[in-house]
Amino acid sequence: MNIKNKKNPLGFALILATFSALGPFTVDMYLASLPQIAAFFGTSATAVQASLTTSLLGLGLGQLIMGPLSDIYGRRLPLLISMIIYILSSMGCAFAPSIEWFICLRLIQGGAASAGLVISRAIVRDRFSGVEMTKFISLLTMISNVAPLISPTAGSAVMSYSSWIGIFIFLGVLGIALTGITLWGLKESLPVMQRVPSSPISLIKNYNGLFRKRSFMGYALVNGILFAGVFAYVAGTPFIYQNIYGVSPQMFSILFALNGLAIILGSQLVKLLAGRVTESRLFLIGLIIAFISSAATLFIVLVHGALSAMFISIFLFALSIGIIGPISFTLAMESQGHIAGSASAVLGTLQFALGAVTSPLVGMAGENSAIPFGIVIFSTSLLSVIAYIVLIKGRERLRL
């Protein structure tokens, strides 16, 4: 079947969201099985955690490769090849003979999964523009953000019927389903005449052009820096909620899910207001909410405030991410139609690269201190405001 996005936007969004969800499922679904994997291979927790690092590395760097390839060869062919590699690497992980092989295969699996992330966003740019793109990317964000909420639970459910091996077989089957969707459910969105030349010089020139555009890099940096705050939240809140505030694992899961719903709520506010309020105004509103909520988080940390106050401030920060994410994508990608794959790669890679920096920082003072977490969260919003003033507002002043 060929999905007609104009007639069935929800169905089209579900397909693209499934490709986007491949990244979170690849990273999160096996987390509960890490101790079992360590026991199976007779290795340390550190060695098994290296497989998480390599999968994240593959997701980040893979986008820089898959984005330009989709600009050169179209969206379907690179996506199809990536899904085949994803199937093989997932099955390879399931039957890896050693922890070293497992770690290497996780790198390949993450790189293959990155195609789903970067190419799905490029397809959105191919098919939509302006307010339509803002509304569609908001719908896509809402659906995609369900994946991080359900992937750990899905992994636990699979493990209740099998071992950790079953998780990677499940991921391989998911890859088979996505291969079928690519073949029969997804039309090529990039015409041959709009593709870029397949030369290293063109690739370097395209990336150089993106890095030199003030507005593009402004929106990309604001988005990337704030998402680095989300990575810090994911790394820090398990210890803050459970070790400092003493909540149970079940209550932590509820609080974590509610913050995920805040991102979904933010994206839906964008969808409702797009066309009534300008994208630039919505973007500024989201940035203000992020700054105020992160400042409140830091204050609550410093005065050892109540759990309810901490939750509300983090909820509002997550809400701001849901607002800023879709709009920053639209405003950054609006003029990058000819190299949408490369532009999408820069947007995605910045999130992972900056997130890799912030995640370890939240634990600098140990598991029983939330001060580094508060500082990191506030710093991300402060740096985002600076990037906005210098690169976006500064560019607007230059036009006057």
From TrEMBL:
Subcellular location per UniProt equals: Cell membrane
For this protein, the parts annotated as crossing the membrane are 12-31, 37-65, 77-99, 105-124, 136-158, 164-186, 216-240, 252-270, 282-303, 309-332, 339-358, 370-391
What membrane topology is given? Multi-pass membrane protein
UniProt keyword annotations, A-Z: Cell membrane, Membrane, Transmembrane, Transmembrane helix, Transport
InterPro entries hit by this protein: Efflux_drug-R_Bcr/CmlA (IPR004812), MFS (IPR011701), MFS_dom (IPR020846), MFS_trans_sf (IPR036259), Sugar_transporter_CS (IPR005829)
- Secretion signal span: none
Q: Do the record's keywords include Transmembrane helix?
A: yes
- One protein family per Pfam: MFS_1
Q: Which family does it belong to?
A: Belongs to the major facilitator superfamily. Bcr/CmlA family.
- NCBIfam families recorded for this chain? efflux_Bcr_CflA
Carries keyword Transmembrane?
yes
**Residue ranges of domain Major facilitator superfamily (MFS) profile in the record:** 12-399
| Organism ancestry | Bacteria, Bacillati, Bacillota, Bacilli, Bacillales
What's the name of the protein?
Bcr/CflA family efflux transporter
